[in-house]
Structures are given as C-alpha cells and as structure tokens.
Specification:
With about 425 residues, the protein is an all-beta fold. About 0% of the residues lie in helices and about 45% in strands. The chain has no helices and 40 strands.
C-alpha cells in the first residue's frame, strides 16, 4: 500500500495462512482481522528560512510554514555547520523561534525535523541557511563637526565601529545642549563625512551651536549600537543677508550704451564683497556676465542701446571663518541700457513777426534720423512756461504763435528715443519777436 503524506493511512483487513513446508500441507486462511489503518507520514514544513536575530546577540531565527494536512506533534531544529552536516542537538521550536548561544558573526545552517504523532512517521529533514549569528555593533567614536555646504547644516565625521560592514548605515542627533535634551532636530541618516541639515540659523547672524551624537543603525546580522559620545559644539552654517533696494539706472555715458545698478548693503554680518550679474534674457538666461567687487552705482558700459538687461546682486560670503556663511542673492531687476545724447550746439535765433527762427548743430552722438523739438519759453528761468514744441527733422525750425511783446528763451531739445536719453540746448539771452 502507498501512503498519502499528511493523511491517515488506509484501513485494511488481514488473514494469515500457514504455507506448505516439507511433510505439511498449507493451512486454510485464518479468520479475518478487524480493520486497521496502515502507517502514514506527515508532510514536511515549507518555506523554511533562517536569518540573523534582530533582538539577540549570537542567535539566528527560524521561520517556516507549518506542514499541510495532519500536523506533526511538534517541530525540532538543529544548528549545523553545513547543509545537513555537523548538526548539534535538536530542540523543539516554533516558527519565528531563535537558536541562541552561537558565535556572533559566524554563519550557520539549520535543520528542521517533524515529530510524528501516533500512526505517522516523520518527514524528511529540511535544511536552510546559511545565516550569520547576530553581532552587536559598538558605538561610533570621535565624532567631530564642521560647517556644512548649505545654510543650516553641519558636516559630521566619526570613526566607524570595527565590526561594521562598509555599507553600515548611521543616524545623527543634533541638539543645542550637551545633555541632548533641548533644541533637538529629529535623528536623520548620515554618512561619515556627510551632513545633517534643517538646523536653525538666522540670515546675517552666526549659526546656532549644536552638539551631535551618532548611532550605528541595525542592519541584517547586526544590532544597533548605543549612541556615540557627544561631539564638541559647533555652529551650523549660516547665510549673509541679501542686498536690498536693487535698482537699475539708465546710463549717462555719451559714448556708449550703459547702465548702473544701485543697492543697499546687506544688514547683519557683512559680506566679503558684492558681485553683480547681468543677462540678456529673463530669468537670468541668455548671455550673462558677472562683475566681481561691484560697487553700487558703477557704470556698466559697452551694452546694446535700448536693450533690456536683467540684473541681480550677490552678497559674497565672508571668507573667515571659512565655511561659516553662504552667499545670498537679491531679487532680479531689469532695466534698459542707454546713451546720453549730447546737447545740440550753436543755437542761433532770428526774431520774426510773432515768431522766431532757429538754427543749430545736431547732437554729435545722435543716431541717424534723430528728432528734435524747438520751444520758446518765458518765465523767470529757461524752459518754464513754454510753447507747444515744434517738431524738427533737420537743423532749422520756426516757432510760431508767440507774442511780439514778450521776451523768450529758445531751446532745442534732442528727443529721447529708444536707447537714448534727452538732451537740451538753449540760446543765450532772450529774444522778442518783431
């Protein structure tokens, strides 16, 4: 009969017959026995696995899925040095149980056996592994701090525990007191030479002083360490304040298109210097130029007349102490590069009947097609109480509709056009129409 593992054996009836031997005849069959099941076999557990303990040094844990069908009376486990070889004394175990008393850091196999109930035999042993008996990580040592690369950060260095794997992970806790109880920032992952971030800083002021401890986190085969000794305090990286009041001023050079940028100095800790960057595209794109050691109001020349430029001013971090501060950048402000027109010259006035005629020499730096306006003005000074301007396309003009009994100042205005600033010339003296 073939048993079906995990199920009760098949019920059988039996008769016994004495076979014929020399000088004898075979007997008749005996009476029929009562029925009885044959011996069966329990099934082996499945999904057997062994792993380092997450709670106990020098231990491994065993997990498995219980046998299907009729359950064994119990399960036993043996620790082995090989797969099914070098096995020690078996002990009763349940899934999730631990095998303890092992050499931490040594890898082991585990063999699982079933204990058969009455009417069954045990399944074949199942082997699993290897897995390392858990090691206890020691705490990192020699924690030191330095300025970080972002505002509100610290660089953390330490000596890793000797049994730790190269990929061992760590966490760091930062607090503002050495008892590690106040001003604490939630523990965060950190690597040796890496950074912790999100610390408190006030722009324009020195960073906040922190103490830090490091802990080796639990990884497969290891238990987490205790916290390291507390580092000496160190300020996190701060940031200078950005300059304010940034304004673009059209240029006043008479020879080249220019502009200048004015700003108010940063408050708080002073930057080492200021830089100004200007670009041809919005969002600081296109062609960009950075001017170092830029002084507020300094003219930037050689630009394209009438072109819009986008500018920002950078407060550069102090160089001492090194790394203590980061630079800060102002908001972006745009403006147009311009050329200051030179005033027309040689303005000559000839009075006429209720009008004056004017001739002049055009502005020396005027672009082709430059337009002018001629005005006659009264009052206590030039260019007050003026007539409606007379457009001028050449270098002569006649201003009409004025009184013959009034004295006038006469002015020629070089009109502002794209990329140019207005210039004014006026005739000396006053003139009366005839």
């Amino acid at each position: 009969a073939l048993p079906i593992s995990g199920s009760a054996g098949t019920a059988y009836f039996v008769t016994v017959t004495a076979t014929a031997t020399s000088g004898y005849l075979a007997s008749a069959p005996s009476t029929v026995s009562s029925s009885h099941a044959d011996t069966s076999q329990v099934k082996a557990p499945t999904n057997v696995a062994v792993a380092p303990s997450t709670t106990t040094v020098g231990a491994v844990t065993v997990s498995f899925t219980a046998s299907a069908g009729t359950a064994p009376s119990s399960y036993t486990a043996s620790v082995c040095t090989g797969s099914g070889t070098g096995c020690g004394t078996a002990q009763t175990i349940a899934s999730g149980g631990s095998m303890t008393g092992l050499v931490a850091g040594t890898s082991y196999y585990v063999q699982i056996n079933t204990v058969a109930p009455t009417g069954y035999v045990a399944s074949a042993a199942v082997n699993a592994g290897p897995a390392m008996a858990t090691l206890q990580l020691s705490a990192p040592t020699a924690v030191t701090l330095g300025y970080g690369s972002t505002a509100g950060s610290l660089t953390v260095t330490f000596t890793a525990p000797s049994p730790a794997a190269p990929s061992q992970a760590y966490t760091a806790l930062a607090c503002t007191n050495s008892a590690m109880t106040t001003g604490c920032v939630a523990s965060q992952p950190v690597t040796n030479g890496g950074q912790i971030t999100g610390l408190a800083f006030t722009p324009g002021s020195a960073g906040t002083a922190y103490f830090v401890s490091a802990t080796a986190t639990a990884s497969p085969g290891y238990l987490a360490s205790s916290a390291s000794s507390i580092s000496a305090s160190h300020a996190d990286t701060s940031q200078v304040n950005a300059p304010t009041g940034v304004t673009v001023v059209p240029g006043s050079s008479t020879t080249t298109a220019s502009l200048s940028v004015t700003y108010s100095a940063s408050t708080g800790t002073a930057p080492s210097s200021y830089s100004m960057e200007y670009c041809t595209g919005a969002g600081m794109t296109g062609t960009c130029v950075t001017l170092t050691n830029y002084v507020s109001g300094t003219a930037v020349t050689g630009l394209a007349a009438g072109a819009t430029y986008y500018t920002e001013v950078i407060a550069n971090a102090p160089t001492s102490p090194s790394g203590a501060y980061l630079s800060a950048t102002s908001s972006v402000v745009s403006g147009v590069a311009t050329i200051q027109l030179v005033a027309p010259t040689n303005v000559t006035v000839t009075p006429g009947h209720r009008q004056v005629s004017v001739t002049f020499v055009a502005s020396s730096n005027a672009p082709s097609g430059q337009l002018y306006t001629a005005e006659a003005c009264t009052g206590t000074g030039p260019l007050s109480n003026c007539t409606t301007g007379t457009p001028v396309t050449g270098t002569t003009a006649t201003v009409t509709g004025i009184s013959s009994s009034t004295s006038y100042y006469v002015a020629i205005i070089a009109d502002a056009s794209t990329g140019y600033l207005q210039a004014v010339a006026q005739a000396s003296g006053t003139y009366n129409p005839t």
